[in-house]
Design goal:
By secondary structure, the chain is α+β, with helices and mostly antiparallel strands. 27% of the residues lie in helices and 51% in strands. The chain has a domain of 159 residues.
Length: 417
């Protein structure tokens, strides 16, 4: 009897091993179907054209199409294809599904995507490209060999790294060349928006017009984004940081530019609803418009803060610095359609510093500073012109005691735009 049990166990194990590639093949097909389903939205659609499943491997062809009429027409006018067919070779491993994907009908775009998906659904990916030169109707795009790699979990968590040595774009009016593009990110899409961190660096960016009469060079360009939800997943904070080490143009140099902008305590449900509606903005119905207005009303009524944490412009003559902190309190229902009513509820602080040497170097700036000093909205403090004001009851209240309604300033800005 024991001998029969052993034979049965061995036989069962053999059957399991023999059938396992079929099981993995079924899992692989389910993964493909699920991934294609997640692609479909109002802009693009995806479908599996063929799925030839074998014992140890499968061959799959999928198609991605642009379906948004406006985007499709624009891409066609610019000479972009609006559909792509991908050919994928799938291997059914013991503990993973390996796939290699290439574009089928675009030999001028030598891109290869390799993925390894564990049976629990977590995936590692790597996309590599060779030298690419793509010619549009009146433009061209050239890329040196580049790579994008990372991982995606079943929970939607993404971790990626980007390395692109050089990109060059040109058309009849101008050309742009970017060197040493590197980026990375960690996070996930939650409630319709990104939660996590992302960075992007460009070693050098050169821009010029077709006649080389205007040229700009940017060195060490950096972008950082950090976004998070609070513990209750109710409030959303986001912080954007932008840095340039040097900007050179024919009419001058900016030695550095640093900008940090943040928004905090945004109502997450309102943002999720806004993201849902604007996803298909080209075909918004009356109901969509009403939903968007309700979401904006709720976003405003819940209150939020926004801050220009740093605006730092470094010039050879000195450094301009500015900061703005504003807060909109809760319980301001029905104000989304009345910007001036919102302005009256704002509180915060505004400050700015302009060195005398900078003002004297730029006549237009000097004229503006002189006007602000005459109106007691700015004051001289040694070698610096300084503005310091609080936002209260819809007014900017300066150190001098001068009060100026924010609505007046907004109207003045709108008239100059």
């Amino acid at each position: 009897m024991n001998q029969l049990k052993k034979i049965a166990a061995v036989g069962g194990a053999v059957c399991l091993v023999a059938s396992w590639p079929l099981v993995v093949g079924q899992i692989a097909q389910s993964v493909f179907n699920d991934n294609i389903a997640t692609i479909n939205n109002r802009l693009v659609s995806g479908k599996i054209l063929t799925y030839d499943r074998g014992y140890f491997s499968s061959h799959v062809e999928t198609e991605i199409q642009v379906i948004d009429p406006g985007l499709k027409e624009q891409m066609q006018d610019d000479g972009f294809p609006t559909s792509w067919v991908f050919s994928t070779e799938v291997k059914h491993g013991l503990f993973s599904i390996d796939a290699m994907t290439r574009l089928k009908d675009h030999q001028d775009i030598p891109v290869q995507i390799t993925t390894r998906t564990q049976l629990n659904g977590n995936t590692q990916f790597e996309m590599d490209s060779q030298v690419i030169h793509y010619q549009g109707n009146a433009w061209s795009l050239s890329l040196t060999p580049a790579s994008l790699s990372g991982s995606v979990t079943t929970l939607g968590e993404v971790d990626y790294q980007l390395d692109m040595p050089s990109v060059q774009f040109s058309d009849t009016d101008f050309q742009v060349k970017l060197d040493n593009i590197r980026g990375n990110g960690q996070g996930k899409k939650e409630k319709g928006f990104w939660v996590g961190s992302q960075t992007l660096q460009v070693e050098k960016a050169e821009m010029s017009d077709s006649a080389d009469l205007e040229q700009f060079t940017l060195e060490k360009v950096g972008y950082q984004n950090t976004s998070s939800l609070d513990a209750n997943r109710e409030r959303y904070d986001t912080r954007q940081q932008f840095n340039i080490a040097n900007i050179s143009a024919q009419d001058g140099v900016i030695e550095h530019l640093n900008v940090i902008f943040s928004m905090g305590q945004l109502d997450a449900d309102s943002l999720a609803e806004i993201a849902r509606v604007v996803e298909h903005y080209t075909e918004m119905s009356q109901e969509d418009t009403q939903d968007l207005q309700k979401a904006l009303d709720q976003l405003v009524s819940k209150g939020f803060s926004m801050s220009l944490e740093q605006l730092d412009i470094g010039l050879p003559q000195g450094q301009i610095e500015s900061k703005v902190d504003l807060k909109l309190p809760e319980a301001t229902e029905g104000m989304a359609q009345d910007p001036f009513a919102i302005v009256k509820k704002l509180t915060g602080h505004v400050e700015s510093h302009v060195p005398r040497t900078v003002a004297e170097a730029f006549p237009v700036l000097r004229q503006g500073v002189d006007e602000l000093v005459a109106m007691e909205m700015m004051k001289e403090s040694g070698d610096v012109y300084q503005m310091d004001a609080v936002v209260k009851d819809g007014n900017l209240v300066f150190d001098s005691g001068k009060e100026v309604p924010l609505t007046v300033l907004l109207m003045s800005l709108m008239m100059k735009m």
